[in-house]
Write the structure tokens for this entry.
Amino acid sequence: YQRRVHGGLSKIRRLVQFYAKRPQLQERLTIQIAEAFSMALGTPDVAVYVHAKHMCVSMRGIKDIKGYTSTNHLMGRFEEGELRREFMAQASQK
């Protein structure tokens, strides 16, 4: 028997907003979101892909208004093999 649990979109948004409201590195944010989902859903099998626009890059510095940064954190069965390839292929599509 395989337990399947899914989080709804509103829960995903709330969880992301909870961690994203404080200044931090996107890499750390991605890890925090993955770990929170793992705990909330009770599974070690979690994959998170974050594709974000950074206001500090578009507003100051090089003023790149088109630039985005992507990070991912894979846990459990997503860390290697076919499941990893499938997830990364889907996540990288525009």
